[in-house]
């Protein structure tokens, strides 16, 4: 069962990443996996369910990468900055651009309602609570700021994913997002500024 599921996700991920969700043929990618449409329906319900599984896999990989980036930072504030900026910068990667940032919202609806975004808000709220407690940021409402930053990061990533020049748009988005983050810093506690 797990092997069949993995084969379908891999084949669909290649198809969605190459030709996009709309043009990906269920018959082509099930045949590539050596399986039938019946297997797809059994495991995922339909093509949309398979897209959700592909996005969940990519989201998990993105989260793992972001955790490594955050852990490598020199202090808690830089960890927070690096993790947020890396998320935005990932939107230039072709697979993330097409599957997560473009096809996902077109097929599955508003990404702010996806389970991964709910987890992102929860995690960011906890990080902001720690940063506030440790004196890195001003006295803010951690959940409110987490929701605003999560929305800003998601919209920045979608801006990049839909831009004619994703690399140039990424630079602009990162610069603007850094300005937002710098506005949170406590002026008297830590002189750290995101570089």
Q: Could you name the key traits of this structure?
A:
73% helix; 9 helices; disordered C terminus; HTH-type_TetR-like_transc_reg; DNA-binding; TetR/AcrR family transcriptional regulator; 195 residues; elongated
Short précis:
InterPro entries: Homeodomain-like_sf, HTH-type_TetR-like_transc_reg, HTH_TetR, Rv0078-like_C, Tet_transcr_reg_TetR-rel_C_sf. The chain is mostly helical.
SSE layout and pairings?
Blueprint (H helix, E strand, L loop, with lengths): L1 H18 L6 H7 L4 H8 L2 H25 L4 H14 L4 H15 L6 H19 L8 H20 L4 H17 L13
Commentary on this structure:
Residues 2-62 form the HTH tetR-type domain. It holds the Pfam family TetR_N. This is TetR/AcrR family transcriptional regulator. Residues 25-44 bind DNA. Keywords: DNA-binding. This protein is mainly α and 195 residues long. Helices cover 73% and strands 0% of the residues. It has helices at residues 2-19, 26-32, 37-44, 47-71, 76-89, 94-108, 115-133, 142-161, 166-182. Residues 191-195 have low confidence and may be disordered.
Distance between the termini: 48 Å
Q: How much is the radius of gyration in Å?
A: 19 Å
- How would you sum up the major sheet? none
* Order of secondary-structure elements: HHHHHHHHH
Protein name: TetR/AcrR family transcriptional regulator
Pfam families: TetR_C_41, TetR_N
Keywords: DNA-binding
Domain HTH tetR-type: 2-62
């Amino acid at each position: 069962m797990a092997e069949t599921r993995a084969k379908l996700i891999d084949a669909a991920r290649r198809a969605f990443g190459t030709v996009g969700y709309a043009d990906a043929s269920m018959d082509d990618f099930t045949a590539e996996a050596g399986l039938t449409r019946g297997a797809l329906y059994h495991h995922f319900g339909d093509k949309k369910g398979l897209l959700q599984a592909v996005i969940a896999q990519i989201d998990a990989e993105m989260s793992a990468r972001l955790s490594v980036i955050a852990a490598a930072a020199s202090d808690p504030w830089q960890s927070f900055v690096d993790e947020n900026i890396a998320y935005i910068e990932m939107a230039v990667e072709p697979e993330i651009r097409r599957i997560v940032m473009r096809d996902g919202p077109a097929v599955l609806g508003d990404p702010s309602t996806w389970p991964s975004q709910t987890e992102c808000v929860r995690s960011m709220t906890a990080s902001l609570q720690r940063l506030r407690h440790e004196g890195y940021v001003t006295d803010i409402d951690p959940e409110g700021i987490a929701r605003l930053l999560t929305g800003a990061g998601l919209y920045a990533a979608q801006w990049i994913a839909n831009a004619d020049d994703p690399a140039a748009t990424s630079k602009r988005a990162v610069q603007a997002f850094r300005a937002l983050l710098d506005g949170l810093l406590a002026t008297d506690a830590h002189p750290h500024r995101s570089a």
